[in-house]
Every structure is written in structure tokens, then in C-alpha cells.
Amino acid sequence: MVETVVDLAARKLGIDPVELRRRNTIPPGAMPFKTGLTFTYDNGEFEKNMDMALAIADAKDPHAIHEGQELFAANCAACHGAKAKGLIGPNLTDKTWLYGGKPQQIAHTIANGTAKGMPSWKNHFTTAQIADLAAFVHALGGGQ
Ligand code: HEC
User: Fold this and answer.
1) Which of 42, 53, 135, 140 makes an SS bond possible with 93, Cβ 3.0 to 4.6 Å?
2) What is the pTM of this model?
């Protein structure tokens, strides 16, 4: 029922339904805020609030997951494997997490890296791209 209403509202407003849901998932505390599609916050500072809001909003968004998949193939597969089952870096598809398997925790690890070989990506990707990557990793199956 709620979903049907969202679709209806989206049609009335001339907005893609996924896009409308995306907008609606963003907590009021994160306003003002643009969606991942047009978001260009990339001054290198991965603010905690933004990180949380985006990562949570993106975690179930097929578009975000798809974007994350492409970024993963190009930037992460070398260490984590094409299927993210682990090479130099650990398996990201299981439920074993060193730094937490919630979307916002995954985003935090990607943004900041770790002392034991996981690079920091916050100066390389936009906040939205990091949220997309976190959404993809979260969707691999082990995400909490
Ligand atoms: C140079 C190799 C390398 C690259 C490239 C790399 N990683 Fe990692 N990654 C690692 C290593 C090594 C660890 C384990 C770090 C530790 O034990 O502290 C890790 C850990 C992680 C973790 C934490 C897993 C857990 O159990 O909490 C995540 C999430 C992750 N990487 C995602 C990514 C993503 C997404 C990318 C691409 C943007 C990426 N990594 C690129 C080497 C890499």
C-alpha cells in the first residue's frame, strides 16, 4: 500500500519512483542535502553525519548498489578479488567483520582505511561514491 502511494506520488511529481524513495529515505537531520545522483560533496572531508545518512539511504537502493559494483570492479577487486571473496584483503561476502557490517560502518572503513593495509579512499571518491561502494559491499550477503 505505502509502496503504491509512493509510485503514485512519483508519477504525479514526474519523478522516478526510485528517486523519490531515495529522497524520502534521507533523514531530516541531513538536510540540506542532494541525492547521490547529483551530489558533489568532495572536499575530502567525510563528515560523519553525511556518511551515516548516505550509507543508510543507499544500502537498499539498486541504483547505488549498481554504481558501487562498477567502482568495486575498477578499484577494489585487485585486493579483494573479483567476487570479493578475498585475496590480499579479506572476504567481504561473509558475516565476519573486522570493523562492522552495518552500511555506515562499511562506509567508514572505506573512507578512512585501516592501519593494516586497507587504503583510505576519502580523497579519491566523493561521499556519494563511498556510500555506493558501501551499499554494494553490504549487499554481498554479509551485511548487517
Ligand atoms: C591494496 C589492497 C586493497 C585495496 C585496493 C582495497 N582494500 Fe579493502 N582491505 C584491504 C585489507 C588488507 C583489509 C584488511 C584490513 C585490516 O585487517 O585492518 C581490507 C579491509 C576492507 C574492509 C573491512 C572488512 C571488515 O572485515 O571489516 C572493507 C569493507 C574493504 N576493505 C572494502 C574495500 C573497498 C570497497 C575497496 C575499494 C574502494 C577496497 N577495500 C580496496 C586491502 C585493500
Assistant:
1) 140
2) 0.74
